[in-house]
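DEPOSITED CHAIN:
***
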Amino acid sequence: MACGTGRLAVKLAESGYQVDGADLSPDMLTLADQRAQQTNSNVMFIQADMRDLSDLDNYDVITCFDDSLNYLINQEDFQKTLNSVSQHLNPGGKFLFDVITPYQVTDIYPGYMYNYRTEDSAFMWTSYEGDFAPAAVEHDLSFSVIMLKKMLMMPIANFIRSGHTIMMN
């Protein structure tokens, strides 16, 4: 449930589990299907809203990771989701999930910043207090490919002859 780009679903399939992936977003499901095709994994991806899984089979295990339950804004939607999951678990089945707490959202995330850089790429994550729901948070994620180092290592005459423009503030 809320399988996103299918990373976990494909890993489970590669480990021998029979897996279906469900997500509300058609774009995420497209990426998930591409990931499964790249690894020749047999995963069926289904568009579904976690609040209503009526079109899905029953399962021994249903997962919902990467804080996906936190996208449910009110108690009614959360209860609908739990009821829907319960209706689709086989007897003795398990629901495995993770969530972040209000403490994480209100005290840790606002102003949180994480930066990671390798020689040729960078990832920057900044979090802000959200205003669309109580205890909401918004994330700004930036990905970059770093070419500056390679350009600076080139003699400037060669750089200019190759048609590059240098702009500095």
